[in-house]
Amino acid sequence: MFLSVLGVVKGATAEQIRQIACPGTKDAGTVRGGLKDLEADRLVATAGTAVRVNEVGNRVTEKLWHLTPAGLEAAAAALDRPAREMGGTAKAAAASGATHARKVTDTLAAFLQTRPEPMLPGPRTAPDAVPRVFVERPPGLGPLIAWTTEVTLPVAGTFASPARGSLRADLVCALPGAAPQLLFVEVDNGTESPEVLADKVARYAAFFKRPAAPRRPAHASAGPALWHTVWPHAAPEAGQRPAYPPVTVVFTQDSGPQALQNRMTALGRLSHALWKGVWHRWPRPSEIGGEDGYQDFESRIPLLATSLRQLASKGPHGPVWWRYGHTEWGTLDVALADLDGLTAYRERDQADRRRAEEIREQRAAAAQAEIEAARRRHEAAAWPCPGCGRPLHPHPDFQMGDHCATCARELPEGRAAQEAAEAAARPRRLFGRRA
């Protein structure tokens, strides 16, 4: 297990290895013993020291351990990775104290949140003065084998020989079937300006945009991006809209909440064009009125930020993430959801369509009810013909109580009127006499 940890992080102290591999042990003594055995087998070595402050405020100097070439091959076998993907032994970094690499290791431990498991007690001369209590850790994002450090992301050139302007991702988590399936982590120690940090985000965007086949005919359809070929499990399926994987920035410097907020704000302002969605406006159904729309995040990076302190205490699934473009801190699932994105718009649009259909049905039912009410009023106003009893309805030619047209012709005045009308209709003969 110790070889696997060093195979991922390349260099670490015994305490850091304990936090990742076996946090259930009382202290790092077990890890140091195991490392000495590996050192005797020439699989690991030490080339420098690191200083940390322990829980009670004391400065502690520790050895920095790294793999040897033989240990690198053994770690590749333990991690089931090709040896060519393992990188170097990190001997030079360990010799210089590996300040940044140690923060990356602390960040990985905060992501993994390895659960402490009780270990079988060894022989002791005296029992512990205070019984040990294991603190339950929050869920982590892992396992260890899903993580890789110092991953080359060439904006041009090759992975083996990247061009100028390329970058190395501090941490990459590739976990098929998880959410997210692919996650890039940038560890910020506060030693670089916000402009430099924002430039790294821009280089992430350049790498995500890079096609796998750069020399394609102008009339050919766009092919897959280069990162799709490296992590095919995270590539969009056929018919899905292309989307960039999330990039998280973990601020490790414990400089107070206001300083952290200022640095986060500066990063958001300088990288605004890389994460801000484009608003598309669409009319709502005429029955509802108004407009709606969605933020299009195609070719935009889901950019998240947190502090190492929050990540270590609450875990990667806790409400520790600030998604640029959101208005509140949220869990990883909430932070990864596009606010006012296409998915949310489609849900609202379907709800609008259902509501519009309900309104049309209500209006049609109301119109039919009015027609039926008018018919009933029309029927209620009818009266029977005094002559034949036939029902008569209100009409400009009739008044209440009148006879129907047939009966009216049978009445004396009706017959006279009928004869007069027939006479008026007959043609006149010579000298004005009617036929």
Description:
The chain has 15 helices and 13 strands. With 435 residues, it is α+β, with helices and mostly antiparallel strands. A hairpin with a 7-residue loop joins strand 5 and strand 6. Helix 1 crosses helix 4. The radius of gyration is 41 Å and the shape is elongated. This is Protein involved in plasmid replication-relaxation. It holds the Pfam family Replic_Relax. InterPro entries: Replic_Relax.
Radius of gyration: 41 Å
Distance between the termini: 128 Å
The strand count comes to 13
Please provide the ordered H/E string of secondary-structure elements. Answer: HEHHEEHHHEEEHHEHHEEEHEHHEEHH
- Indicate the proportion of strand residues: 15-25%
Uncertain residue segments: none
The number of domains is 3
Counted by DSSP, the helix tally is 15
Structural class: alpha+beta
Q: What is the spatial order of strands in the main beta sheet?
A: 4-5-6-7-10-11
In percent, how helical is the residue content? 25-40%
> What would the principal axes of the Cα set say about the shape?
elongated
Protein name: Protein involved in plasmid replication-relaxation
Biased composition (Basic residues): 426-435
Pfam families: Replic_Relax
InterPro entries: Replic_Relax
Task: Describe how the helices and strands are arranged.
Blueprint: H1 2-9, E1 11-12, H2 14-21, H3 29-40, E2 44-53, E3 59-67, H4 69-79, H5 91-95, H6 99-112, E4 147-153, E5 167-174, E6 182-188, H7 194-209, H8 226-230, E7 247-251, H9 257-270, H10 272-275, E8 278-283, E9 291-296, E10 303-307, H11 308-314, E11 322-323, H12 332-336, H13 342-380, E12 383-384, E13 391-392, H14 405-410, H15 412-425
Parallel strand pairs: 6-7, 7-10
Antiparallel strand pairs: 1-3, 2-3, 4-5, 5-6, 8-9, 10-11, 12-13
Helix pairs in contact: 1-4, 2-3, 6-11, 7-9
Region (Disordered): 416-435
Protein name: Protein involved in plasmid replication-relaxation
Organism: Streptomyces minutiscleroticus
